[in-house]
Amino acid sequence: MLEIKEVWKTFNAGTINEKQALRGVSLTLNDGDFCTVIGGNGAGKSTMLNAVAGTWAVDEGTISIGGVDVTRLPEYKRAPYIGRVFQDPMLGTAPTMQIVENLALAARRGQKRGLRWGITSTEKELYHQMLKNLDLGLEDRLTSKVGLLSGGQRQALTLLMASLRKPKLLLLDEHTAALDPKTAAKVLELSDRIVAGNHLTTMMVTHNMRDAIAHGNRLIMMYDGKIVIDVSGEEKKKLTVHQLLELFSKVSGSDEADDKLLLS
Questions:
Q1: Do 141 and 101 touch, CB atoms closer than 8 A?
Q2: In this predicted model, what pLDDT tens digit does every residue of 152-200 receive, in sequence order?
Q3: CA 198 from centre of chain
């Protein structure tokens, strides 16, 4: 469902601030894989996710989603293939519009618009049931402005919007980093339910090692622009934070782990 082949990306090439963010990264995700991506600051995980999303072009290599080569496609042309939830709860929704209007926009993504009633009663009933399943009390607030919701409620709504049209690939970009621990745990539980219920191929970037181990069926760790650890299946299920740190030290040749990675 996702194939990254020998992707390289350098920022500020030829200047004193040159930074080689990706160094020949290759990764294949099969249909239904839920892959967590972990690494310290500057490891390349966000750069890889943004390269897949089309936020910026890569220098070398190819990226395919669902068998379609999207390497040279701009971000907006990749939208039909990708659903994304950002770290900032303020992104991904239209704050001055109602909850029901945001959901309707997500449902119509990529479709032609015409002169007809914007939201039908059937749609409202469908959205009511979807929101009820989130168990956040949003089903009775369909006409509330999204800007009035809490960070956790907005992330839950964004998750629902990102998965409405069942994208070929769901990108979760540290989507719980700005939330308090209790809310973050709730959003992660919702993420698991939505991913499993829709059989979505998913890539989740996180700084939290425990979350990376607890969620998904595959875990990769990045260091210095490369994938240095790739575990899945039973090996991942049995993994501990201590073992993950030992693996990191072994493959990186360093006992130094990023402070944010350790503190998370």
A1: no
A2: 899 999 999 999 889 999 999 999 988 888 888 999 999 999 999 999 9
A3: 15
What lies within 8 Å, CB to CB, of 194 at 6+ separation is 159, 160, 163, 200
Q: Give the C-alpha distances (Å, rounded to integers) separating 112 from 67, 115, 166.
A: 25, 10, 18
Among the listed residues 92, 70, 57, the one whose alpha carbon sits nearest the alpha carbon of residue 1: 70
DSSP state of 143: T
pLDDT in tens, 210-257: 999 999 999 999 999 999 999 998 999 899 988 888 888 887 766 656
Distances (CA, A) of 110 to 77, 80, 135: 9, 6, 29
- In degrees and rounded to multiples of 5, residue 69 shows phi and psi of -75, 110
pLDDT category of residue 58 using cuts at 50, 70 and 90? very high
**Residue 204 bridge partners (DSSP):** 36, 172
Residue 165 main-chain phi, psi, to 5 deg: -95, 15
According to DSSP, the β-strands at 19-29 and 34-38 are unpaired
Are the CB atoms for 175 and 191 separated by under 8 Å? yes
Burial level of 88, CB count in 10 A (0-12/13-18/19+)? middle
Going from the C-alpha of 209 to that of each of 9, 155, 245, 246, 248, the distances in angstroms are 25, 21, 9, 13, 12
C-alpha to C-alpha distance for 27 and 29, rounded to whole angstroms: 7
pLDDT at 2 over 90: yes
- Sheet containing strand 68-69, edge to edge, reads 19-29, 2-11, 60-65, 68-69
Q: Which two tokens stand for residue 36?
A: 């967590």
Please state the rounded mean pLDDT for residues 137-155: 90
pLDDT of residue 262: 55
Return the percentage of the chain with pLDDT > 70, whole number: 92
